């Protein structure tokens, strides 16, 4: 068995892996359990009682975190020339069409979100096999295929993110940074959880939210008492 580091020993003194914490406690504790030299991400994992293989139990949505993600989101807007000025003024990092489609075909995906207008979707479709697995494919349901380019860019820059349940039934989302205050982490976590609650599939029988865990990039997962979350809301 490998030897525990000094920081790992400190973490074990502050943290009980068998305990269920309330959300407020967890948002404070996650800061105390993180010893990275960089500003680590804070992540929320929610295990749902859905069967993602069934279309009527798929959980997917968008949420605007009140305090953002703490991450600089790189936005590419694919549009016709008449929309380029609007996109640039709204804060898009990259704006264009054919040249960026060619770059993506060549392997470039150094972006976080792609927004496009409906008219260019026929050109975007062929690169879907590249964008899809990376979660970059524009989709009208998430507001990334729209004529209102300016509003879409501003929302993404302000902290709007899309999420969906994975094949194991877990929604896993970065909701901030360790440098955030506990109150900011708490507000972001509740916004995400409330959004997930609203998306409960009508076809689901049984428990919807089975477990919730909060962690940072390098910390252990803090198990949250689902009942205290439900009661608080």
From TrEMBL:
One of its GO terms (molecular function) is tRNA binding. InterPro entries: Ribosom_uL1_bac-type, Ribosomal_uL1, Ribosomal_uL1-like, Ribosomal_uL1/biogenesis, Ribosomal_uL1_3-a/b-sand, Ribosomal_uL1_CS. GO terms for cellular component: large ribosomal subunit. It comes from the Bacteria. Keywords: Repressor, Ribonucleoprotein, Ribosomal protein, RNA-binding, rRNA-binding, Translation regulation, tRNA-binding. PROSITE patterns: RIBOSOMAL_L1. One of its GO terms (biological process) is regulation of translation. Protein L1 is also a translational repressor protein, it controls the translation of the L11 operon by binding to its mRNA. Part of the 50S ribosomal subunit. Belongs to the universal ribosomal protein uL1 family. This is Large ribosomal subunit protein uL1. It comes from Candidatus Merdivivens pullicola. The gene is rplA.
């Amino acid at each position: 068995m490998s030897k525990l580091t000094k920081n790992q020993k400190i973490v074990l003194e502050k943290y009980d892996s068998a305990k269920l914490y309330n959300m407020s406690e967890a948002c404070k504790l996650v800061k105390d359990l993180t010893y990275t030299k960089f500003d680590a991400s804070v992540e929320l994992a929610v295990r749902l009682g859905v069967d993602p293989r069934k279309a009527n139990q798929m959980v997917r949505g968008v949420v605007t975190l009140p305090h953002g993600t703490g991450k600089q989101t790189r936005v590419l807007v694919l549009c016709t020339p008449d929309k380029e000025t609007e996109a640039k003024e709204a804060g898009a990092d990259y704006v264009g069409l054919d040249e960026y489609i060619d770059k993506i075909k060549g392997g470039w995906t150094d972006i976080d979100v792609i927004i496009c207008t409906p008219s260019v979707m026929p050109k975007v479709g062929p690169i879907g096999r590249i964008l899809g697995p990376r979660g970059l494919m524009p989709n009208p349901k998430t507001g990334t295929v729209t004529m209102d380019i300016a509003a879409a860019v501003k929302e993404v820059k302000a902290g709007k993110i899309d999420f969906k349940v994975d094949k194991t039934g877990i929604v896993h989302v970065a909701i901030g940074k360790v440098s955030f205050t506990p109150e900011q982490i708490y507000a972001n976590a509740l916004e995400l959880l409330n959004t997930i609650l609203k998306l409960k599939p009508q076809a689901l029988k049984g428990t919807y939210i089975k477990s919730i865990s909060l962690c940072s990039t390098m910390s252990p997962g803090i198990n949250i008492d689902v009942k205290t979350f439900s009661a608080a809301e």
